[in-house]
Amino acid sequence: MQNSRILVVEDDTELCELVAGRLREAGYEVDTAATGVEALRRVEAHVPDLVILDIMLPELDGLEVCRRLRASHPLLYIIMLTARTGEVDRVVGLEVGADDYVTKPFSLHELVARVRSALRRLRLTQEQAMEPADAILAYDDLSIDPMRREVRRAGDLLHLTVREFDLLVFLTRHPDRPFTRMQLLDKVWDIQYEGYDRTVDSHVQRLRAKIEDDPGNPRFIRTVWGVGYKFQSEALE
Fold it and tell me: pLDDT 10s per residue in the chain (237 long)?
C-alpha cells in the first residue's frame, strides 16, 4: 500500500510539516489539517487509509474527532498522538476508538514504522478476506464473516473497529489456545515492543463490551491468568 493516503492532523505547524514530509519520503500520499473541524471536513471529502491524530487540537480536540470518525468510518485506522504521558490518557484515546497511539516526543523513524506496519496489516486483512465465501467462523450465536468484515450476535450486526475485528478473527481462528499479550501484539498489531500491554487489554475490554452478554464474566474471550487471553470455543458453566 505504498500509495496509501494518510491524513496528518496536528496544529503544531513545524511538527506537522516534519511528519508529512517524512511520510511523503516513504512513498505515501499525505494531506494535513490543523484543527479538529478541518480534519472532519477533509475525511468527509476524501476518506484516507489512515489518520494520524493529535489529541490536543483547537476547535475540537482529538478525542472528540476520533469518536466522530469512528462512528462514521468504523474501518478507518487511527493513530493518536499525545504529549501526555499518563496511562489514563492513552487508555482514553483507545477507548474512544483509536487503533494505536504514539507519545510525544517520538522518533519519526518509529512513527513511519508504525504506519507501515498498520498499512501492511490492513493489506493482509484484505487479502485474507479473499478466502472462500463459506469460510464463516461461527460459535454459538456469534458469527464472523472475514470476507465482508462483518460480525453478528444473534443476527444483529456489530460495529467493530479495524483492530477489534482483526483481534477477534485471530483469536477465533485459534480457538482454546492462550496467547500472551506480546504474542497478540506481534500477530495482530505487528509490534514487537514491550510496554504496550495496556493496548491489548483495552481492545479486549472494548471487544468484550460488544460481543459478550456479561463483559465482566465473559464466555468467549477469557483471561488466562499469568498468560494472556484465549477464545473459548464452548461456553463454560
Answer: 457 999 999 999 999 999 999 999 999 999 999 999 999 999 999 999 999 999 889 989 998 999 899 888 877 899 988 876 555 555 566 667 788 888 888 889 989 988 988 888 777 666 655 555 457 888 888 999 887 788 999 889 998 888 889 899 999 989 999 999 989 988 887 766 555 677 888 889 989 999 999 999 999 999 999 999 999 987 543
- Class for domain 132-231, per CATH? mainly alpha
What single-letter amino acid sits at 190?
D
Residue 158 has a CB neighbour count (10 Å cut-off) of: 17
> What's the sign of the alpha-carbon dihedral 53, 56, 58, 63?
positive
Q: What is the pTM of this model?
A: 0.68
Domain 5-127 CATH (choose: 3.20.20.140, 2.30.42.10, 3.40.50.2300, 2.60.120.620): 3.40.50.2300
Please give the C-alpha separations between residue 235 and each of 164, 170, 219, 231, in angstroms, as whole numbers: 21, 19, 6, 10
How many Å apart are CA 25 and CA 22, to the nearest integer? Answer: 5
Q: Indicate the angle between helix axes 197-211 and 87-95, nearest 10 degrees.
A: 30
